[in-house]
Protein: Succinylglutamate desuccinylase
Organism: Pandoraea capi
Amino acid sequence: MTDAHRSALRHWLSDVRESRDHPHDEGVDPCGVRWQRHAEGVLELTPATASRSAEGAENDAAAQPGYRYDAILSCGIHGDETAPIEIVDGILRDIADGRLTLRERVLVVLGNPDAVRAGKRYLEYDLNRLFQGAHAKRAESPAVQRARELEVIVAQFFAGVDGVRRTRRHVDMHTAIRASLFQRFAVVPGTPQHSPSDDWFDALGAADIEATMRTEQPSVTFSYFTCARFGAQSCTLELGKVAPFGENRLENFSGIDAALRRWLSGGEFEARDDGKSPQPQRFRVAAEIVRRTDAFVLDVPADTPNFTPYPAGTVLARDGENTYTVSHPEERIVFPNPNVANGLRAGVMVVPE
């Protein structure tokens, strides 16, 4: 047995690089956490206390697992977004070394290991545009196969192990490809059936998330998939700008790192040690600018930061005879990108809630 297999958590990143031939290993880490690798880069972790009680007293009500959440923590959906990978790696290493006690059942997902190895956002197609069944509309490729695989694993994970329905939560961590007027912000999906609660926004604020953008626009992102299909409290976190491994200023993300550690160890996002309850600036999505044809033009500079404001009457996009004109007193643009494929969004317009 290799050192990586003796401690799947302590050597998580090396496991990813070495597990292609053995994607379905399982065992108990030296810290007592039970782990199961469902696929390359995907580890399901069960708290040590839950494992011991279930094995020691199957029929005892007191032996029921005490965790409250079925939690998904994902990163590396885009391979060059390294800060979230380093944050997750640090959490797993501290669990393995006994510095952090895991008390929640969690699925840890490194979304696109091939792109991580290559240091690229994606290889053939953007993985975060392939969920909610969108992969079925694309030609077969490794990205399509990965999206389908992750959807199946998530469905199995949320089905649970003991028939108990727990709160479902998914934190999908990214970094942005451009500067932002808010360095740390969250996209919070919702549907008419699964509207995000104020408590979820409060929790994100306590994690030092500076702004949130609520959207009920149907989407093909990973976080929208878990919200729409499974009713999870989901979010896509954008944490600063893309940087190579080792060049991230992780101190800028200490708030979300601390919140994740509180949560996974049995506490709550909002239970800060300093007792403060910072609130994010809340926005909602007013519209999406979609590129329809090759004639599309987005009239914003290439270096425009996320959340740049524009006043009413500003023409931001032209696509043949169609235009997008700001209609609210002020709208802010997020994720402006004129170089997307036809049919995809080239920008998101938000207004204050």
